[in-house]
Design brief:
Helix content: under 10%
Protein name: Deoxyuridine 5'-triphosphate nucleotidohydrolase
Structural class: mainly beta
EC number: 3.6.1.23
Largest sheet: 4 strands, antiparallel
Number of helices: 1
Catalytic activity: dUTP + H2O = dUMP + diphosphate + H(+)
Bound molecules: deoxyuridine-5'-triphosphate, magnesium ion
CATH topology of one domain: Deoxyuridine 5'-Triphosphate Nucleotidohydrolase, Chain A
Strand content: 25-35%
CATH class of one domain: Mainly Beta
GO molecular function, one term: dUTP diphosphatase activity
Cofactor: Mg(2+)
Strand order of the largest sheet: 2-11-6-8
Distance between the termini: 43 Å
Order of helices and strands: EEEEEEHEEEEE
Length: 144
């Protein structure tokens, strides 16, 4: 599907890195190097603005390599880009390691997945359909 994008960054457009990748890597767009100290969080700009069609969202998810090797996560993971958002896409990174982590322009800091979603209309009810699970949850089937 085609999606309109404004790229105000110094980077190329986000791209799928492999043939059947679900996510496109997002690159940092910075004036200077940003350092994340242990447990520090910072909003990292991408310079990108997109126009998603109605009924679609974009999810901003962590990259597992950065998470595993450097403890870099996304505080609000998965971040949600609404279809009516026209502002700059930013990524709220957090450093969950005990070492400083440096981010430079062009670094692939996260990945973005475009997905369909529903908007629901509530139908108020006095009772809900019966199921075997019922109210069971939070491990009620056992943890082993
Ligand atoms: O990781 C993210 C999450 C959100 N956004 C942008 C797009 C999204 O449409 C908007 C609002 O995000 P969200 O609804 O998660 O934040 P909120 O705290 O509910 O703010 P708002 O009251 O503006 O909806 O911020 C980003 O750029 N990056
Ligand atoms: Mg919101």
């Amino acid at each position: 599907m085609n999606i309109r994008i404004i790229n105000n960054s110094k980077n190329a457009l986000p791209a799928y890195e492999t043939l059947h990748a679900a996510g496109m890597d997002l690159r940092a767009n910075l004036e200077e190097t940003v350092t994340l100290k242990p447990l520090e969080r910072k909003l990292i700009p991408t310079g990108l603005h997109i126009e998603l069609p109605e009924g679609y969202e974009a999810q901003i998810r962590p990259r597992s390599g950065l998470a595993f090797k450097h403890g870099i996560g996304i505080v609000n993971s998965p971040g949600t880009i609404d279809a009516d958002y026209r502002g700059e896409i930013k990524v709220l990174l957090v450093n969950l390691s005990n070492e400083d982590f440096e981010i430079n322009t062009g670094d692939r800091i996260a990945q973005m997945i475009v997905a369909k979603h529903e908007q629901v209309t509530w139908v108020q009810a006095d009772e809900l359909g019966e199921t075997t699970r019922g109210h069971g949850g939070y491990g009620h089937t056992g943890l082993g």
